Amino acid sequence: MKLPNLDEARKRTNNKVDYIYLDEHYDQNTFKGQKYFLRTYGCQMNVHDGEEIAARLESLGFTPTDKLEDADIVILNTCAIRENAHDKLYGFLGRCKHAKKDNKDLIIGICGCMAQEESVVKELMEKHPYVDIVFGTHNIHELQDLILKRSNKQDINVYSCEGEVYENISYKRDSNIKAWVNIQYGCDKFCTYCIVPYTRGKQRSRKSSEIIKEVENLVKEGYKEVTLLGQNVNAYGKDLEGELNFAGLLKEVSKTNIPRIRFVTSHPWDFTDEMIETIATCPNIMPYIHLPLQSGSSRILKLMGRRYTKEEYLKLFNKIKETIPNCAVTTDIIVGFPNETEEDFNETLDVVNTCKYDSAFTFIFSPRKGTPAAKMSDEVTMATKEERLHKLNELVNSYSLQANQKYVGQTVPVLIEGISEKDPNKVFGYTDTMKLVNISNAQDKIGKIIDVTITDAKSFSLDGEIK
Ligand code: SAH
Ligand code: SF4
Ligand code: F3S
To answer: Which of 122, 157, 174, 459 is surrounded by the most beta carbons within 10 Å?
Structure first.
């Protein structure tokens, strides 16, 4: 049994990355007729891990169910980014414990970023012995073995800081139109508030040849869009000798002729002019950039370890807007970082007023155990933080609506993805700038990029029709 350890993860002395080419064979009859229930929380990376977990479960013969009561195995793929993750985990475990009373053979598995936290694993061992298997973000490839070899005890296998990259992974993709493609694992930025470098390990880039191969296969399978995934896509390749940089990778992916290329997340720190030029000149790279601000105050940014100032951020933002016509920019903002003053907060509002983001994800700072910011003293009350969040959201939403209203009357290309959940007579899709559009009478257009005339705009979506 291996336990995760934040201190060990922090040291990371060994920079070598091992590339392991999986060659796995499992018997699909092993759990024939049995069902799996998989729930994933967190970011796109976790969602994509969920697609790997699903493929692994199906390789043993399990089929999916969305009813916990019908499941023979339950896997909870957790996120650790904010404190409320804990409530979600333990709330869910309560349901699992109950389900196990009715079905004693139910296998309960916990994985994802929380499984990389030492304190969480200890708590699972001490207080939740009915959990059968625990595996971390570095151990997903061991899932089948963990299931096949499980004993009567809790089986835990979580590595602290493995430096491996696995290739030949199978995914059960949620969509046959757009696909996630990992280009890099882990993160080396260590922003002082963030748990990710501890739960995902050091930055490890995949080789560009493998990434291109994966995208080429997706093109052959008829996929229309790929999203290149990493915590810091701009730093792609920096950990490998003789590898392309991110702009170089984008150019190569562009040559596969996949109709749409997106990427998340871009840290403002490593954003180069070459990247901006590449996005501007390759027609299949979408004019949409998620550029997390976190705070508009240079003082707070320094405390966050973000390594850019308000001015540097704005300079980059302006360069993007000048070079890439119609580029949509979205962001992430944290309010209530320890001892954020009214003045600091006003700096954030000032940047929002300047950048007029297409949309923004906003969060109240959540202290994460083991990170430097969690140890900082903080005089700001929760009531003040909530007030700031409310004020920020109102401002952000007003700009989202403004940005969306500009589309009314325009005809824009939309990739149609499926039937709208709210209205079965409509389909939904996204513009190249990542605006959600609901469209009437276009059921036969799913999987196609079509011209749609925008008829109405709301804060979070557009309505459109085909002329
Ligand atoms: N790699 C990405 C972010 C990944 S986490 C980047 O650097 O931009 C997604 C978002 O969660 C972050 O951008 C940040 O806004 C938010 N976040 C991370 N840690 C947080 C914390 N401790 N409290 C509140 N929000 C947090
Ligand atoms: Fe977290 Fe910062 Fe890395 Fe993003 S760049 S994952 S916020 S440490
Ligand atoms: Fe959450 Fe882990 Fe992603 S903490 S945000 S699932 S990298």
So the answer is: 157
Structure tokens at 308: 């850019």
Pairing, β 426-431 against β 436-440: antiparallel
Ligand 1 pocket residues where CB is under 6 Å = 81-82, 193-194, 196, 231-232, 265, 267, 292, 294, 332, 334, 363, 365-366, 368
Query: Nearest 5°: phi and psi at 409?
Result: 95, -15
Determine if ligand 3 sits within 6 Å of the CB of residue 45: yes
Task: State in Å: Cα 278 to ligand 1 middle.
Answer: 26
Per-residue confidence in pLDDT tens, the chain, 467 aa: 555 555 555 454 456 778 889 999 999 999 999 999 999 999 999 999 999 999 999 999 999 999 999 999 999 999 999 988 888 899 999 999 999 999 999 999 999 999 998 889 899 989 999 999 999 898 899 999 999 988 777 777 776 666 689 999 999 999 999 999 999 999 989 999 999 998 998 899 999 999 999 999 999 999 999 999 999 999 999 989 899 999 999 999 999 999 999 999 999 998 999 999 999 999 999 999 999 999 999 999 999 999 999 999 999 999 999 999 899 999 999 999 999 999 999 999 999 999 999 999 999 999 999 899 999 999 999 999 999 999 999 999 999 999 999 999 999 999 999 999 888 899 999 999 999 999 997 889 999 999 999 999 999 999 999 98
| Residue bearing tokens 């940014």 | 301
Q: How far is CA 155 from CA 35, 91, 109, 377, in A?
A: 21, 22, 9, 38
**pTM recorded for the entire structure:** 0.95
Looking from the CA of residue 195, the nearest atom of ligand 3 is 4
The enclosing H or E element of 394 equals: helix 382-405
Structural domains of the chain, with CATH:
6-164 (3.40.50.12160), 175-286 (3.30.750.210), 287-405 (3.30.750.200), 411-465 (2.40.50.140)
- Give distance in angstroms: CA of 104 to centre of ligand 1: 39
Which is it for strands 359-364 and 426-431: parallel, antiparallel or unpaired?
unpaired
